[in-house]
Amino acid sequence: MGRALGRRQRLRRFTVADDIQNTLTVGNASAYVYWTGASLGATRGLIQLANPGDDYRVSKRYWALAAFSRFIRPGAVRVPVTDADPALRVTAFRNADGSRVIEILNTAATESSAEFSLRGGHDRHPDGYVTDETRSITPADIVSTHGTTLTATLAPRALTTIVLD
Length: 165
Description:
Layout lengths: L1 H24 L12 E3 L6 E3 L6 E3 L1 H12 L5 E3 L8 E7 L5 E7 L5 E6 L9 E5 L6 E3 L2 E4 L2 E6 L3 E7 L1
């Protein structure tokens, strides 16, 4: 029973990240709103409150939502991006300040890698962040650039955020 519950919780975290990706890409929306901020027990709330008591737990759904909202700023525009791997869901944005953000959802149960061509190259090392079962927007050395090619190592069943200033 415990294993099944853990799997369902992992899928819910993953579902929210997938919903955000679909809303922004397929729905061509400019925002994503999640209404259940906090709730009692193991529900869809971003923060799960203990009943009774003062304890709480920040859900992985919170961190999936935070991965998008922390780096993609108001006024950002979605830019075209393609990847041939059907297990990857990729969305890219350019913020008003010129920074670029790539959100990659690896739906596979195995580690993967992806390469992207960057327009105009890139002078700095990009920042990579991973949100998965054990990490919450955790900085990770998973991205490199060489000329106009960006390469990322993607954890299984994880949301990877790449920020290029």
